[in-house]
């Protein structure tokens, strides 16, 4: 049975969602405010979160931001705000899908099932990867090969994006969009130098110039090498 966290303060909608998801074979846990939603998120570790934007205590944007510090959990935003700017903001902030209210039951279930089908096992902050990396969100640092590397906010977000997509090449433009919120692709040199600083910090933490899990894929972008596979490219290499 798949556990789904519903963070929604509308009691009637919550009841409808609980009934619909339970009948579809999911276990539903619920919070009616942002703070309790975050508490349940880390305590229960669900497979998916349905998140309202207009929440008391912490709004949905704040919950989404903190969720992305904790995990790469699939998040479906539910909101009465249907403006394109809100949809774009949600997706850029790390939401996986967006469904304006009111919505049909069949569409909701289809989106839930699609997210669950295509999602990899969720990685949680504090988890150790099999190659010796652990992200520490409250300190904005990474433990690499048993030694802590203190990172800037940009460096931490950069490593977080690459780790979530371990083994896959992420282009320079994608990194600008996800880390710097620069969808226009301006300032591409920022990516090159941020990766350079990040790689040096990880090597210094490990005390080994060869201990570098990041790879520059010339002409494409960068990737975090799953299980340390392959050889890292030159520090200055990057996509076009």
UniProtKB/TrEMBL annotation:
Keywords of the record: DNA-binding, Phosphoprotein, Transcription, Transcription regulation, Two-component regulatory system
Recorded superkingdom: Bacteria
Domain Response regulatory, first and last residues per copy: 3-116
UniProt key word Chloroplast: no
One Pfam family cited in the UniProt record for this chain: Trans_reg_C
Binding region for DNA: 124-226
GO cellular component terms listed in the entry, alphabetical order: cytosol; protein-DNA complex
InterPro entries xref list: CheY-like_superfamily (IPR011006), OmpR/PhoB-type_DNA-bd (IPR001867), Sig_transdc_resp-reg_receiver (IPR001789), WalR-like (IPR039420), WH-like_DNA-bd_sf (IPR036388)
Residues with PTM 4-aspartylphosphate: 52
GO molecular function: phosphorelay response regulator activity; transcription cis-regulatory region binding
Protein name as annotated: DNA-binding response OmpR family regulator
